Amino acid sequence: MAVSLSRRGFMALGCSAAASPLLTPVTLAAAPWDQRLVVIILRGAMDGVDVVQPYGDRALAAARPTLLTGEAGGAIDLDGFYALHPALADLMPMWRAGELGFAHAVSTPYRDKRSHFDGQDLLEAGTGFEEGTHTIRDGWLNRLLQVTPDLAAETAYSVGQGEMLILSGQAQAASWVPDTNLALSPQTRDLMRLVAASDPLFADALGDAVQIVESLEEEEDTAMMAGGKRAPGHQKLAQFTASRLRGATRIAAFSLGGWDTHNRQIGRIKPPLQALSDVLLTLKAELGPIWGQTAVVAMTEFGRTARENGSGGTDHGTGGAMVMAGGALRGGKVYGDWPGLGERDLYKGRDLMPTADVRAYAASTMRGMFGLPRDVLEQVVFPGLDMGGVPDLTL
């Protein structure tokens, strides 16, 4: 059960800003662990072959003659075979510290249709896929909460109706959306408290909401007085998430968009990569010592074609990459079996061949973080999953 209360909703119930790309929901939940898990959905199908470049594969340069991979494109060597896109250069200290890792040639069970909507639904639902028969009722993080005893909901807030499927379901969770253009005046806050006085549940939620809003406004005012600038939207997501994780929240999920690079990929992939880098660095800085108990997994609905297209981009594909970070992870490594980019190695002659289920890496992370049995992960959290072959990812 999701608990949502919007700052705009206090003043005009029913207003929706779901279509706005500036509104990105953060969903959180409290749980009886010290470990923290952050799941980031990379909406738009991130090109894993560009982000973690297999420059040791001789077929890469021929498949992408203008995308400038490897040394020609300024990529940073990771292990002699893989190189990191230069837009993520600021994350190299994390890599060297063992706090950043990747899983390559991964995908959900989704195949061939290559629809963002279906792909994202299947990614967040965490289920298998049978042509024309899949029915999605809840998300895999919610099912994780359903098998967790002594669960409590964390109060947070949402502007618009951007609820994430990944935490939708029977277990309690809450959501909040930052919006730099909205503010509650003191008079409005007093009025809302008066209206809520006869409803203890709403009064408690409102009190927490106002406290959160005021604390965020205080942080922004302090930054401005110190000569700083207001953080961009993606950094505000990370800052708010970290503020909750420093308290009772143990699980957080949000999304970052901008990964649909059908043309001019050299330029278009840099902003989302920079946003991802900013988010990871902000989480580490804001969490402080809690970073050592934190795992971040960033997943996308599917990969992109192995070959670039005629407009300097890549089209919807199959196999891709998963990004992992955090002090609780065994980083400093690119996990997975590389299938190759030769003509006979590709899925249907066009896509990176998946050699592992991306859900298995998420499950391995949760098994190490929360001690969940393998059969619960394979049968309840991710129905139909086989975790075989995926190593332990946590310390």
Automatic annotation (TrEMBL):
Keywords recorded for this protein, A-Z: Signal
Q: Does the keyword Ion transport apply?
A: no
Domain of life where this protein originates: Bacteria
Q: What are the boundaries of the signal sequence?
A: 1-30
| Name of the protein | Twin-arginine translocation pathway signal
